[in-house]
């Protein structure tokens, strides 16, 4: 789709395209606002000052992926609102493309945030805050009887209020025992790599890889496709490389628990949320959410 036709199509649906953001693997991404949002200024330059920015994911629908692409919308809608899941706004089909619109997260993905750190480590306070919110989002997914199956830094966003938002439910599935190989290589659990049946705890492994990444600023088992077989061997058999001692033993132990290779011994999301280090942060997180709700009511 050329830019002009994209802008015209979204305009007919009530949205104004601000800019093309990027494209990847058959998907195009756009920054939008609702066309009827009222500006705070009459000048063209300030046209979107007070408009809520939206993010559109436009994906090509083919015979072999139509069910999965449409299933992503059904999954997002079925989950409803949760502060730690990306906020669904709208969806519609245009010829061979499915367009899904979300509330925009202006801080970007954790992957981009990590890359921009340039090897400057995050504070423990920041890491605990983020992993607590990630676990809250995973709990919502698991409560709904689903497995995300692709938790990774690219699929975890941050908004301007400091809220984590899990996104990309394209391969989420009902949490019956599964044996389909899927996910992102460096984040895939040992049970999936070994073609074993798996359940919700595969998301815990992936979140543990992400936690390790946040702590050490490098993935525990590598990431290069050329090292695929070696990465599988490391994930399934190799002892986890140690975490830096500059972080508390509680945080390091949390990460090690999440990266327990035997899924039967790996804690589920409910056990992790009861960990002392998470409980303390959870209280602050809930307090922050309530304060935000009160601000909305008072405005």
Explain what this protein looks like in three dimensions.
The protein is of the alpha+beta class and 299 residues long. The protein has 2 domains: 11-36 and 52-103, Phosphorylase Kinase, domain 1, CATH 3.30.200; 108-289, Transferase(Phosphotransferase), domain 1, CATH 1.10.510. It contains 10 helices and 10 strands. The protein has helices spanning 3-12, 66-79, 110-116, 124-143, 190-193, 201-216, 228-237, 249-258, 269-273, 276-298; strands at 15-24, 27-34, 54-60, 88-94, 97-103, 108-109, 146-147, 156-158, 164-166, 173-174. α4 (124-143) runs antiparallel to α6, α4 crosses α10 (276-298) and α6 crosses α8. It starts with a helix and ends with a helix.
Q: Which overall shape is indicated by the principal axes computed on the Cα atoms?
A: globular
Number of strands: 10
Rg on CA atoms, Å = 20 Å
Low-pLDDT stretches? 38-50
Please report the distance between the alpha carbons of the first and last residues: 40 Å
Counting structural domains, the number is 2
EC number: 2.7.11.1
Protein name: non-specific serine/threonine protein kinase
Keywords: ATP-binding, Kinase, Nucleotide-binding, Serine/threonine-protein kinase, Transferase
Catalytic activity: L-threonyl-[protein] + ATP = O-phospho-L-threonyl-[protein] + ADP + H(+); L-seryl-[protein] + ATP = O-phospho-L-seryl-[protein] + ADP + H(+)
């Amino acid at each position: 789709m050329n830019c002009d036709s994209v802008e015209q199509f979204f305009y007919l649906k009530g949205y104004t395209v601000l800019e093309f953001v990027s494209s990847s693997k058959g998907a195009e991404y756009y920054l939008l606002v609702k066309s009827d949002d009222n500006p705070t200024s009459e000048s063209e330059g300030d046209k979107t000052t007070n408009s809520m920015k939206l993010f559109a994911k436009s994906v090509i629908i083919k015979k072999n992926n139509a069910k999965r692409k449409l299933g992503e919308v059904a999954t997002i809608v079925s989950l409803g609102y949760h502060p730690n899941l990306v906020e669904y706004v709208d969806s519609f089909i245009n010829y061979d493309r499915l367009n899904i619109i979300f509330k925009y997260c202006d801080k970007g993905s954790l992957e981009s945030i990590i890359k921009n750190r340039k090897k400057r480590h995050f504070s423990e306070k920041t890491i605990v805050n983020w992993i607590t919110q990630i676990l809250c989002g995973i709990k919502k997914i698991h409560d709904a009887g689903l497995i995300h199956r692709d938790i990774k830094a690219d699929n975890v966003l941050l908004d301007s209020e400091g809220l984590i938002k899990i996104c990309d439910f394209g391969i989420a599935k009902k949490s019956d025992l599964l044996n389909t190989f899927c996910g992102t290589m460096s984040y895939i659990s040992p049970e999936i790599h070994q073609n074993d049946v798996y359940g919700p705890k595969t998301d815990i492994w992936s979140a543990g890889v992400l936690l390790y990444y946040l702590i050490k600023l490098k993935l525990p088992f590598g990431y290069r496709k050329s090292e695929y077989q070696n990465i599988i061997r490391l994930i399934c058999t190799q002892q986890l490389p140690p975490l830096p001692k500059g972080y508390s033993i509680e945080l390091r132990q949390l990460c090690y628990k999440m990266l327990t290779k035997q899924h039967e011994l790996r804690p589920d999301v409910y056990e992790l949320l009861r960990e002392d280090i998470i409980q303390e942060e959870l209280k602050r997180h809930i307090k922050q959410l309530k304060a935000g709700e009160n601000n909305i009511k008072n405005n």
